[in-house]
Amino acid sequence: MKLARFTYQDTIWLGLVDVGAGTIDCLVKQQGDEDLVIRFINASQEGHRAQTAQVTLPISDVQLLPPIETPSKNIICIGKNYVDHAYEFAASGYDTSVKDQGEVVPDALIVFSKAAGTMIGAFDDINPPWALSKQIDYEAELAVVIGRRGRNIARKDAYDHIWGYTVINDVSARDLQSRHRQWFLGKSIDTFCPIGPWLVSADEVDPSNLEVSCWVNGELRQHANTRDLIFDIPTILSTLSASMTLCVGDIIATGTPAGVGVGYNPPRFLKPGDTVRIAIESIGEIENTLR
Fold first, then answer.
1. Which long-range contacts (CB under 8 A, 24 or more apart) does 105-109 make?
2. pTM
């Protein structure tokens, strides 16, 4: 199942995507403030089946929105979760978490967050504040979306708490990360989290074996497989839920592979007019232009 939030004729809808046909079957339109996707996930967990509104639209006629509107907390992000990226980031001089070369590959989860208000749709523009930052970077990531509330989740039960998966670009202002010696401000600029294009239900995805790729202006910059994660998804959920309750609709970005702009010598930061395309096997792709 591929579940999308989208705007059509000034109305927000929830729909089921048929990628092969290039269409979306409308389910329900937004009424009030309740998050359509969280309501759908809760209903599906209770055994309710979705009824379509008998309206089918071409995907090309709608504007895709972030699949989740209101997670219960900031987007939870995992840092340095691929070995090659850990080394490139340490060598870049921007990694304030490393004290010596013996600490390059983390032995425990590195966790930070990104403001939920940064989310934009799969094909929306990224609008950096160029007067504030000149070192804009991209990070292709697989994101997990929680489908069942849980605390102290055991590794063996982790996948029971996942509804599905989506694609994230964890856009980052590297100079702000370095200046403030933490990552929140540099990660939480408005429009710095393209996400989508939809949620793909867990039954359609093997998250332990997915190709993750990123192109900048058509040039392949990142390519890896999620089997190379240092900390796998069960470890991520178990570790996080030991400290906090994970709620329906919460979003967890699992980390980016090597090939980010700051990893090059000299760094290859993004410029106005650049286009970043990220594709994850079995899920889909997002593409965003910097303005």
1. 105/80, 105/230, 106/79, 106/80, 106/230, 108/239, 109/78, 109/231, 109/235, 109/236, 109/239, 109/240
2. 0.96
> How many other C-beta atoms can be found within 10 angstroms of the C-beta atom of residue 27?
18
- Express each pLDDT in 22-78 by its tens digit: 999 999 999 888 899 999 999 988 877 777 778 999 999 999 999 999 899 999 999
CA distance 164 to 178: 33
